[in-house]
Amino acid sequence: MSGVMTQLFMFLVIWWLTLFAVLPWGVRRTESNDAGHDPGAPANPMLLKKALITTVIAAAIWGAAFLFFRVFGFTLMDLIERSGL
């Protein structure tokens, strides 16, 4: 985990995984029974708010991983050896 591109891609993967975990938070169904409206569609999806929350959480996870691997010098092989696999 050394290059800038590696770190960027790692952040993007963490961001997308976090987004899928955050999306269901606070979802309320629409109360409209109009034709053409899906009854399971969220009334107010709050996508911008969820994107910001996702960014904060993903940055914290990425930062912890960055510290763990870059600053403290752990490698994936160290983790595998310590786990006994």
Characterization of this structure:
With 85 residues, this protein is an all-alpha fold. It is built from three helices and no strands.
Low-confidence runs of at least 5 consecutive residues:
none
- The total count of helices amounts to 3
**Fraction of helical residues:** 55-70%
Categorize the overall geometry: elongated
Rg over CA atoms: 19 Å
- CA(first)-CA(last) distance: 21 Å
Structural class: mainly alpha
Q: How many strands in all?
A: 0
The biggest beta sheet reads: none
Along the chain, the helix and strand elements come as HHH
Q: Strand share of the residues?
A: under 5%
> How many domains?
1
The averaged pLDDT comes out at 86
Break the fold down into its secondary structure elements and pairings.
Layout: H1 4-22, H2 47-71, H3 76-83
Helix pairs in contact: 1-2
Task: Identify the notable features of this structure and list them briefly.
3 helices, 85 residues, mainly alpha
Summarize the structure.
It contains 3 helices and no strands. With 85 residues, it is mainly α.
